[in-house]
Task: structure prediction
Amino acid sequence: MQHLVVERELELQLILSADHSFPVPARLGYRSDDPYAVHIAFHVTSEQPVNWTFSRDLLVEGVFRPCGQGDVKVWPTKVDGRGVVLMALSSPDGEALLQAPAAQLAAWLERTLRAVPPGSEAELLGMDGALDQLLAR
Result:
């Protein structure tokens, strides 16, 4: 079975304070062989990109309303009249507040939802078949 990949390069803003931010190139990635997750590689000043993986559902919901807890929180807002999505990321290595353009993020998410419609993820993983085999033993 061929796996689908939906990627997009997108420039995010790393928010340092109310008046200071700087651009951070990022690659958004979605793979049908990992259908519940989205992957974001942030290309910061380090040699290797900083990679984050979290729930696609969380990001989809965060385009419309505040959601998340713990390491990842996502919420929509407006900045200078433009719709943006803020992502607060927290790890033992530090914290970051990133801003993504809402329209571009939503368009990419829509592509992932067309590639793997919500509710069909388990079929791709073959979980039902594996569970049936396990229970048959």
Notes: The chain has a mean pLDDT of 89. The chain is about 30% helix and 45% strand. The radius of gyration is 17 Å.
